[in-house]
Design a protein that fits this description.
4-stranded antiparallel sheet, two-stranded antiparallel ribbon, 10% strand, binds zinc ion
Length: 167
């Protein structure tokens, strides 16, 4: 059973920001923390994305054998993940990584240093956020640190007793 609902682990979100900044080594460390903290689908998702980060790290370092090996491993984890999971566009990531690996294989061991890094695309993802609607005035409310406030009428909640307002 796959469970792609619920928010990203905070270290996974951090890992994706680092990934998208091209900081693949640091992305790997953050995603490892998230992976260690999770079970099931989320664990496989984070491990797969982690291995794509390591694949890209190997590519940028000209390590052909490392890139091929780690990319191969990543497929075991990512193959059965839904197209979008915990806000991560997994199918697009898979497509981008496959394109990058086709280029790696075309260049081969000898010419990998000529790899065009613009082929290393960022991961598309959305932070899952709840929308709160004020029960007094109908205005959209803002959440910060679990305190939910209506900017229109000043109505306030704590997010822990707000399940009925989840959209
Ligand atoms: Zn209000």
């Amino acid at each position: 059973m796959s469970d792609c609902t619920g928010p990203l682990h905070p270290q996974a979100a951090e890992g994706l920001r680092l990934f998208n900044a091209g900081e693949y080594f640091e992305a790997h460390e953050a995603l490892e923390d998230a992976w260690n903290a999770e079970e099931g689908t989320a664990k496989n998702l984070y491990r797969g994305v982690l291995q794509i980060a390591v694949t890209y790290l190997h590519i940028t370092r000209g390590n052909y054998a490392g890139a091929v090996k780690v990319y191969g491993r990543s497929q075991k984890w990512l193959r059965n993940i839904p197209k979008i999971c915990k806000g991560i566009h997994v199918a697009e990531l898979q497509n981008d990584a496959a394109n990058a690996m086709r280029e790696v294989e075309r260049l081969g061991r000898e010419n990998i240093s000529g790899f065009d890094r613009t082929l290393l695309k960022p991961v598309k993802w959305e932070e899952t956020k709840h929308t709160y609607i004020c029960d007094r005035c109908g205005h959209e409310m803002y959440e910060k640190n679990c305190k939910v406030t209506c900017p229109n009428c000043g109505n306030r909640f704590d997010c822990s007793d707000l399940n009925i307002y989840f959209d």
